[in-house]
Amino acid sequence: MITEQAMDAATITSWMREIETSVRSERDYLVQLDAAIGDGDHGTNMVRGFEAVVQALDGEAAAPPGRLLILAGRTLVSTVGGASGPLWGSALRSGGRVLGDQPTFEGGQLVEVLAAALASVKDLGAAVVGDKTMVDALEPAVDTLRTELAASAPLATALGEAAEAAETGMRATVPLQARKGRASYLGERSIGHQDPGATSTALIIRALQRAVSAAG
Ligand SMILES: [Mg+2]
After folding, report:
1. Engineering a disulfide at 170: which of 38, 157, 202, 204 sits with its beta carbon 3.0 to 4.6 angstroms away?
2. pLDDT digits 0-9 by tens, 80-98
3. 67 C-alpha to center of ligand 1: Å?
4. Is residue 48 a contact partner of residue 79, using CB atoms and an 8 Å limit?
5. How many structural domains are present in the chain?
6. Rounded CA gap, 196 and 133, in Å?
7. What's the domain range around 106?
8. Span from the CA of 61 to the centroid of ligand 1 (angstroms)
9. pTM above 0.85?
10. What is d(CA 33, CA 42) in angstroms, rounded to the nearest whole number?
């Protein structure tokens, strides 16, 4: 079925720009969330990381999309402290490897990119849904995107549903007790706070939807 729009390097560049804009405008909110159950650096870290990613990708327009994701991942690892740099860095590199050097990709491969990203986060963080981490937003997003595309939803629609699933997962972290990451040291005191990693992950999926919709 050839009803899907193809995505390419410009999609990745646009996604990274959308993320940078989004984490910058939500920086204080992410800092507040992290100050409540972590060390308060999440918003600052994400902004620093994705500013560096946008800079690194500038002038790489001729590179294949998989290479751009790998470069973005490497950049996050080298610029972001805390857990989010290594986790998103590894996620984007794993996703990029799925695409190899191919110049374009379609929805089904985007699912595989995000599934590889999720697998690397779960592997590195040893986290599952319900642990009050970014996995609580990322896993439902990947599952929803796969299900929607399998049901022949248009890509932009499927990504909108995936972003909503990520936001639902994000909000569902509020009543949970953290079982992984720094917040888990708080035990029951982590209950009642939204997870910052799940929150930035929901922003990242929403940014992907905007990047793909803008190109369509
Ligand atoms: Mg932190």
Report:
1. 202
2. 988 889 999 999 999 999 9
3. 28
4. yes
5. 1
6. 8
7. 7-215
8. 32
9. yes
10. 8
DSSP letters for 170-192 = HHTTTTSPP-SSGGGGGGGGGTT
pLDDT tens-digit series, residues 24-82 = 999 999 999 999 999 999 999 999 999 999 999 998 988 999 999 999 999 999 999 88
d(CA 16, CA 128): 26
Question: Tell me, what CATH number does 123's domain have?
Answer: 1.25.40.340
The structure tokens listed for 205 are: 């999926």
Q: Is residue 1 part of a domain?
A: no
CA 54 → CA 6, 14, 35, 50, 119, distances in Å?
A: 22, 9, 26, 6, 24
CA of 60 to the centre of ligand 1 (A): 30
Count of Cβ atoms closer than 10 Å to residue 58 Cβ: 11
CB 60 within 8 A of CB 47: no
Separation CA 132–CA 174 (nearest Å): 8
